[in-house]
Amino acid sequence: MIHARRPAVVLAAALTVLATATGCGSSSGGDTASVPAQPKPSGGISDFPKSAGHTLAELQARLPAGPVFAPTVSVLRAGTDRVGFGLFDVAHKQIAGAAAALYVANADGSKMRGPYIARSESLAVKPAFESRTTAQDPDAAKAVYVADVPFPRKGRYAVLAVVRVDGRLLATSGFTLSVGAKGALPPGPGDRAPRVHTPTLASVGGDAAKITTRNPPDLPLLKTDLASVLGKRPVVLTFATPQLCVSRVCGPVVDVAEQVASEFSGRVTFIHNEIYNENDTSKGFRPQVRAYRLPTEPWTFVIDRHGRVSAAIEGALSVGELKRAVAKVAGT
What we know:
Order of helices and strands: HHEEEEHEEEEHEHEHEEH
Strand content: 15-25%
Region (Disordered): 24-49
Largest sheet: 8 strands, antiparallel
Structural class: alpha+beta
CATH superfamily of the largest domain: Immunoglobulins
Keywords: Signal
Number of domains: 2
CATH class of the largest domain: Mainly Beta
Shape: globular
Domain Thioredoxin: 187-331
Organism: Paraconexibacter antarcticus
Helix content: 10-25%
Number of strands: 12
CATH architecture of the largest domain: Sandwich
Number of helices: 7
Protein name: Thioredoxin domain-containing protein
Distance between the termini: 37 Å
């Protein structure tokens, strides 16, 4: 809805076209005082085909056709990037927890590299933090795969996933991703976070419905104006619109932010900013969205106490991912 070319819309299209019914269920969490270790990927490099000397087309020809591959990222920079994606089977269900790996090649499929092993990240939160917005949305995303992929230079790359389902290796269709896309990019790690005022409960006279579409309102994330704390303490700034999100990811992401906020209370400030003026898609984007140059939603920025971006995460993320990112700035 923000930009027609975004892969987040591709994910939404996959959800819509496949008529998937993947409600985000609740699950109990672990020790809230601890920071979870990064989950181990399912499978190892030896479980997937070698890439040396092969093209992407040759890899696809060797394996049966598999799930739909739906990237959840649109902004990539030269270097090692976090590539998030969803997988959907022929029965129109989202696949979670499978062994999966990404392969990357030049845009024409030559010089293939990989496999880059992906880990499956659940979007589930503790029951106390699951919103009705998420629970009642049959298309809400429930998981995301994440792989760390090196992109040596700017340009266009062909990407596909190989997935092990029921003991068989399957190849998804290919997808093209742009690294170092033209135009102004959102702030990335090391950049100064733009200082903008964000709306708060106080600024709207306590009427939460004016500044959040989540049900129930995420009140702990609506108390602080970013401009008042930026450069003074660590901040997590989440841009998302749970009720109006095209990709069906925003609801779970705000749920994740609220749970993690409860675990870092007093150490890190968490802020949620909606996408559309007056929460109306016809009234354009809020000024904060424009200031951060967002081509998609949702986005989560983890900012250190000096006002610099430590992590910029596009799309879906898990409680574990956010806790690990926040832990890096919580003590600085």
